[in-house]
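Weekly puzzle thread! Below is a chain. First person to post its structure in C-alpha coordinate form gets bragging rights.
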Amino acid sequence: MKRKPTLTIGIPAHNEEANIERLLNTLVTQKGNFVLEKILVVCDGCTDRTEQKVKEFAKTHKIVKILNDKKRYGKASRLNQIYALNKSELLGTFDGDILLARDCEIDLMVKEIQKNPKTNVVAARLKPFPAQGLIEHFSVVSFLSFEDAILRLNNGNNYYSLIGCASMLRGSFAKTFTYPTKVISDMNYLYTVAIKNNPDGVKLARETQVIFRTVRSFHDWRVLGQRSVKEDKQNLTTYFGEGVLQQYSMPKWISVTSQLKWLLKSPIYMTGSIILNIFIRLFPLQTAKPHDGIWEDTRSSKDLSLA
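Winning reply:
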Protein backbone atom coordinates (compact mmCIF):
# COMPACT_ATOMS: atom_id res chain seq x y z
CA MET A 1 0.00 0.00 0.00
CA LYS A 2 1.30 3.44 -0.93
CA ARG A 3 2.33 5.52 2.07
CA LYS A 4 0.15 8.54 2.81
CA PRO A 5 1.94 11.91 2.67
CA THR A 6 2.22 13.89 5.88
CA LEU A 7 0.49 17.26 6.10
CA THR A 8 0.70 20.34 8.29
CA ILE A 9 -1.85 23.14 8.07
CA GLY A 10 -0.79 26.69 8.88
CA ILE A 11 -3.16 29.57 9.59
CA PRO A 12 -1.79 33.13 9.78
CA ALA A 13 -4.46 34.83 11.87
CA HIS A 14 -5.18 38.47 12.64
CA ASN A 15 -8.33 39.05 14.68
CA GLU A 16 -10.27 36.02 13.45
CA GLU A 17 -12.45 35.39 16.51
CA ALA A 18 -15.63 35.52 14.41
CA ASN A 19 -14.72 32.49 12.32
CA ILE A 20 -11.67 30.62 13.64
CA GLU A 21 -13.63 27.90 15.45
CA ARG A 22 -15.74 27.18 12.37
CA LEU A 23 -12.61 26.91 10.24
CA LEU A 24 -10.90 24.56 12.70
CA ASN A 25 -13.99 22.35 12.78
CA THR A 26 -13.94 22.02 8.99
CA LEU A 27 -10.21 21.21 9.08
CA VAL A 28 -10.21 18.48 11.74
CA THR A 29 -13.03 16.63 9.96
CA GLN A 30 -11.18 16.35 6.64
CA LYS A 31 -10.72 12.84 5.27
CA GLY A 32 -8.49 11.37 2.60
CA ASN A 33 -5.13 10.04 1.55
CA PHE A 34 -2.93 12.06 3.91
CA VAL A 35 -1.78 12.11 7.53
CA LEU A 36 -2.63 15.39 9.25
CA GLU A 37 0.21 15.97 11.70
CA LYS A 38 -0.50 19.46 12.95
CA ILE A 39 -2.71 22.51 12.61
CA LEU A 40 -0.65 25.56 13.54
CA VAL A 41 -2.36 28.89 14.16
CA VAL A 42 0.06 31.83 14.21
CA CYS A 43 -1.46 34.98 15.67
CA ASP A 44 -0.37 38.21 14.03
CA GLY A 45 -0.98 40.94 16.54
CA CYS A 46 -4.42 39.68 17.51
CA THR A 47 -6.28 42.06 19.80
CA ASP A 48 -9.50 40.04 20.01
CA ARG A 49 -10.32 36.56 21.38
CA THR A 50 -8.67 34.55 18.58
CA GLU A 51 -6.04 33.08 20.90
CA GLN A 52 -8.54 32.12 23.60
CA LYS A 53 -10.85 30.44 21.10
CA VAL A 54 -8.02 28.41 19.55
CA LYS A 55 -6.73 27.32 22.96
CA GLU A 56 -10.21 26.21 23.96
CA PHE A 57 -10.58 24.23 20.74
CA ALA A 58 -7.14 22.67 21.22
CA LYS A 59 -8.22 21.14 24.54
CA THR A 60 -10.17 18.52 22.60
CA HIS A 61 -8.00 18.46 19.46
CA LYS A 62 -4.37 17.89 20.39
CA ILE A 63 -3.05 18.44 16.86
CA VAL A 64 -4.05 22.11 17.09
CA LYS A 65 -1.24 24.39 18.27
CA ILE A 66 -1.01 28.16 18.59
CA LEU A 67 1.84 30.66 18.60
CA ASN A 68 1.35 34.25 19.71
CA ASP A 69 4.20 36.72 20.20
CA LYS A 70 1.73 39.63 20.53
CA LYS A 71 3.33 41.46 17.58
CA ARG A 72 1.94 42.56 14.21
CA TYR A 73 4.26 41.76 11.32
CA GLY A 74 1.83 41.04 8.47
CA LYS A 75 0.81 37.93 6.60
CA ALA A 76 4.00 37.49 4.57
CA SER A 77 6.16 37.35 7.70
CA ARG A 78 3.79 34.87 9.31
CA LEU A 79 3.88 32.67 6.23
CA ASN A 80 7.67 32.69 6.45
CA GLN A 81 7.35 31.57 10.06
CA ILE A 82 4.96 28.77 9.15
CA TYR A 83 7.14 27.59 6.25
CA ALA A 84 10.23 27.51 8.48
CA LEU A 85 8.49 25.49 11.20
CA ASN A 86 6.93 22.95 8.85
CA LYS A 87 8.34 19.42 8.89
CA SER A 88 5.63 17.70 6.86
CA GLU A 89 5.82 16.67 3.21
CA LEU A 90 2.87 18.90 2.35
CA LEU A 91 1.89 22.25 3.80
CA GLY A 92 -1.59 23.73 3.52
CA THR A 93 -2.06 27.40 4.34
CA PHE A 94 -5.51 28.81 4.99
CA ASP A 95 -6.69 32.26 6.02
CA GLY A 96 -8.76 32.43 9.17
CA ASP A 97 -11.87 33.79 7.46
CA ILE A 98 -12.71 30.86 5.19
CA LEU A 99 -14.42 27.47 5.55
CA LEU A 100 -13.97 24.14 3.79
CA ALA A 101 -17.35 23.18 2.34
CA ARG A 102 -16.95 19.38 2.52
CA ASP A 103 -14.71 16.82 4.20
CA CYS A 104 -12.91 16.04 0.91
CA GLU A 105 -11.43 19.45 0.08
CA ILE A 106 -7.90 18.80 1.33
CA ASP A 107 -7.86 15.35 -0.27
CA LEU A 108 -8.71 16.95 -3.62
CA MET A 109 -5.78 19.33 -3.19
CA VAL A 110 -3.45 16.47 -2.23
CA LYS A 111 -4.50 14.50 -5.30
CA GLU A 112 -3.87 17.51 -7.55
CA ILE A 113 -0.36 18.08 -6.24
CA GLN A 114 0.44 14.36 -6.59
CA LYS A 115 -0.55 14.26 -10.27
CA ASN A 116 2.67 15.89 -11.39
CA PRO A 117 6.00 15.91 -9.51
CA LYS A 118 6.69 19.33 -11.06
CA THR A 119 3.66 20.87 -9.37
CA ASN A 120 4.77 22.64 -6.19
CA VAL A 121 1.67 24.71 -5.41
CA VAL A 122 -2.04 23.94 -5.64
CA ALA A 123 -4.72 26.60 -5.41
CA ALA A 124 -8.18 25.83 -4.08
CA ARG A 125 -11.26 27.02 -5.92
CA LEU A 126 -13.32 29.48 -3.92
CA LYS A 127 -17.07 29.60 -3.46
CA PRO A 128 -18.70 32.82 -2.22
CA PHE A 129 -20.84 32.80 0.91
CA PRO A 130 -24.56 33.44 0.26
CA ALA A 131 -25.05 37.16 -0.23
CA GLN A 132 -26.92 39.32 2.26
CA GLY A 133 -27.60 42.92 1.34
CA LEU A 134 -27.21 44.88 -1.88
CA ILE A 135 -23.44 45.51 -1.81
CA GLU A 136 -22.71 41.86 -1.06
CA HIS A 137 -24.92 40.76 -3.97
CA PHE A 138 -22.95 43.09 -6.25
CA SER A 139 -19.72 41.70 -4.81
CA VAL A 140 -20.67 38.04 -5.24
CA VAL A 141 -21.71 38.50 -8.87
CA SER A 142 -18.54 40.51 -9.53
CA PHE A 143 -16.50 37.58 -8.22
CA LEU A 144 -18.47 34.94 -10.14
CA SER A 145 -18.21 36.80 -13.45
CA PHE A 146 -14.47 37.24 -13.00
CA GLU A 147 -14.06 33.60 -11.94
CA ASP A 148 -15.83 32.59 -15.15
CA ALA A 149 -13.07 34.36 -17.07
CA ILE A 150 -10.31 32.95 -14.85
CA LEU A 151 -11.42 29.37 -15.48
CA ARG A 152 -11.20 29.90 -19.25
CA LEU A 153 -7.71 31.42 -19.14
CA ASN A 154 -5.12 28.63 -19.47
CA ASN A 155 -7.62 26.14 -18.04
CA GLY A 156 -7.72 28.04 -14.77
CA ASN A 157 -3.97 27.92 -14.20
CA ASN A 158 -3.02 31.59 -14.00
CA TYR A 159 -2.15 34.40 -11.62
CA TYR A 160 -5.76 35.08 -10.78
CA SER A 161 -6.65 31.56 -9.63
CA LEU A 162 -4.11 31.55 -6.79
CA ILE A 163 -6.10 33.85 -4.54
CA GLY A 164 -3.99 33.06 -1.50
CA CYS A 165 -6.51 32.27 1.23
CA ALA A 166 -6.35 28.52 0.54
CA SER A 167 -3.32 26.82 -0.99
CA MET A 168 -1.08 23.79 -0.64
CA LEU A 169 2.68 23.58 -1.15
CA ARG A 170 5.25 20.84 -1.18
CA GLY A 171 7.16 21.18 2.06
CA SER A 172 10.47 21.00 0.23
CA PHE A 173 9.48 23.85 -2.08
CA ALA A 174 8.39 26.02 0.85
CA LYS A 175 11.96 25.84 2.16
CA THR A 176 13.45 27.30 -1.04
CA PHE A 177 12.34 30.92 -0.63
CA THR A 178 11.10 33.54 1.81
CA TYR A 179 8.67 36.39 1.25
CA PRO A 180 10.12 39.90 1.45
CA THR A 181 8.75 41.53 4.59
CA LYS A 182 7.12 44.36 2.64
CA VAL A 183 5.47 42.25 -0.04
CA ILE A 184 1.73 43.01 -0.11
CA SER A 185 0.62 40.28 -2.50
CA ASP A 186 1.88 37.03 -1.06
CA MET A 187 -0.14 34.94 -3.53
CA ASN A 188 1.24 36.69 -6.60
CA TYR A 189 4.77 36.48 -5.23
CA LEU A 190 4.25 32.76 -4.58
CA TYR A 191 2.88 32.21 -8.08
CA THR A 192 5.82 34.00 -9.68
CA VAL A 193 8.39 32.00 -7.73
CA ALA A 194 6.58 28.71 -8.39
CA ILE A 195 6.36 29.09 -12.19
CA LYS A 196 9.90 30.37 -12.67
CA ASN A 197 11.44 27.94 -15.17
CA ASN A 198 8.54 25.59 -14.40
CA PRO A 199 5.23 26.11 -16.27
CA ASP A 200 3.64 23.27 -14.26
CA GLY A 201 4.58 24.84 -10.92
CA VAL A 202 1.04 25.90 -9.97
CA LYS A 203 -2.24 24.11 -10.58
CA LEU A 204 -5.84 24.82 -9.68
CA ALA A 205 -7.84 22.10 -7.91
CA ARG A 206 -11.02 22.90 -9.84
CA GLU A 207 -13.35 20.61 -7.90
CA THR A 208 -12.60 22.08 -4.48
CA GLN A 209 -15.07 24.29 -2.64
CA VAL A 210 -13.57 26.70 -0.15
CA ILE A 211 -16.12 29.16 1.17
CA PHE A 212 -15.20 32.80 1.64
CA ARG A 213 -17.16 35.97 2.18
CA THR A 214 -16.99 38.85 -0.25
CA VAL A 215 -16.96 42.40 1.07
CA ARG A 216 -20.27 43.80 2.30
CA SER A 217 -19.59 47.52 2.51
CA PHE A 218 -18.80 50.21 -0.05
CA HIS A 219 -15.71 51.26 1.91
CA ASP A 220 -14.31 47.72 1.96
CA TRP A 221 -14.99 47.39 -1.78
CA ARG A 222 -12.86 50.49 -2.33
CA VAL A 223 -10.07 49.18 -0.09
CA LEU A 224 -10.05 45.83 -1.88
CA GLY A 225 -10.18 47.54 -5.25
CA GLN A 226 -7.20 49.76 -4.48
CA ARG A 227 -5.22 46.65 -3.64
CA SER A 228 -6.26 44.34 -6.49
CA VAL A 229 -6.39 46.94 -9.27
CA LYS A 230 -3.17 48.80 -8.59
CA GLU A 231 -1.04 48.16 -5.53
CA ASP A 232 -0.52 44.39 -5.86
CA LYS A 233 0.89 44.72 -9.36
CA GLN A 234 3.07 47.71 -8.57
CA ASN A 235 4.50 45.94 -5.54
CA LEU A 236 5.33 42.81 -7.52
CA THR A 237 7.40 44.77 -10.05
CA THR A 238 9.65 45.81 -7.17
CA TYR A 239 10.89 42.23 -6.90
CA PHE A 240 10.56 40.85 -10.44
CA GLY A 241 10.66 43.87 -12.76
CA GLU A 242 8.07 45.25 -15.18
CA GLY A 243 8.10 42.04 -17.23
CA VAL A 244 6.10 40.25 -14.55
CA LEU A 245 3.04 42.30 -15.52
CA GLN A 246 2.72 40.19 -18.69
CA GLN A 247 1.54 37.34 -16.47
CA TYR A 248 -1.58 39.37 -15.64
CA SER A 249 -2.59 39.60 -19.29
CA MET A 250 -6.09 38.36 -20.08
CA PRO A 251 -7.55 38.55 -23.62
CA LYS A 252 -10.34 41.12 -23.75
CA TRP A 253 -12.76 38.69 -25.36
CA ILE A 254 -12.57 36.40 -22.33
CA SER A 255 -13.42 39.08 -19.78
CA VAL A 256 -16.08 40.71 -21.99
CA THR A 257 -17.90 37.45 -22.77
CA SER A 258 -17.89 36.51 -19.08
CA GLN A 259 -19.42 39.85 -18.16
CA LEU A 260 -22.05 39.51 -20.89
CA LYS A 261 -22.88 36.03 -19.64
CA TRP A 262 -23.49 37.34 -16.13
CA LEU A 263 -25.41 40.36 -17.39
CA LEU A 264 -27.88 37.87 -18.83
CA LYS A 265 -27.90 35.67 -15.71
CA SER A 266 -28.11 38.49 -13.16
CA PRO A 267 -28.72 41.83 -14.92
CA ILE A 268 -29.36 43.99 -11.85
CA TYR A 269 -26.48 42.79 -9.69
CA MET A 270 -24.03 42.56 -12.58
CA THR A 271 -24.87 46.11 -13.64
CA GLY A 272 -24.32 47.28 -10.07
CA SER A 273 -20.97 45.51 -9.86
CA ILE A 274 -19.80 47.04 -13.15
CA ILE A 275 -20.72 50.52 -11.94
CA LEU A 276 -18.85 50.03 -8.66
CA ASN A 277 -15.79 48.59 -10.39
CA ILE A 278 -15.70 51.58 -12.75
CA PHE A 279 -16.03 53.92 -9.76
CA ILE A 280 -13.08 52.46 -7.84
CA ARG A 281 -10.90 52.86 -10.91
CA LEU A 282 -11.95 56.45 -11.53
CA PHE A 283 -11.84 57.43 -7.86
CA PRO A 284 -9.31 55.23 -6.04
CA LEU A 285 -9.29 55.37 -2.25
CA GLN A 286 -6.04 57.23 -1.64
CA THR A 287 -6.13 56.59 2.11
CA ALA A 288 -5.99 52.82 1.52
CA LYS A 289 -2.26 52.22 1.41
CA PRO A 290 -0.26 49.33 2.86
CA HIS A 291 2.20 50.04 5.66
CA ASP A 292 5.20 47.70 5.86
CA GLY A 293 3.31 45.01 3.97
CA ILE A 294 0.14 45.34 6.07
CA TRP A 295 -3.21 46.37 4.59
CA GLU A 296 -6.21 47.90 6.29
CA ASP A 297 -8.59 45.07 7.24
CA THR A 298 -11.79 44.56 5.27
CA ARG A 299 -13.82 43.66 8.33
CA SER A 300 -17.11 43.02 6.51
CA SER A 301 -15.75 39.78 5.01
CA LYS A 302 -14.59 38.21 8.28
CA ASP A 303 -17.76 36.62 9.67
CA LEU A 304 -19.15 33.59 7.83
CA SER A 305 -22.45 33.38 9.68
CA LEU A 306 -25.98 34.13 8.56
CA ALA A 307 -26.78 36.10 11.70
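Puzzle host: Confirmed. Bonus trivia for everyone else. The longest strand covers residues 202-212.
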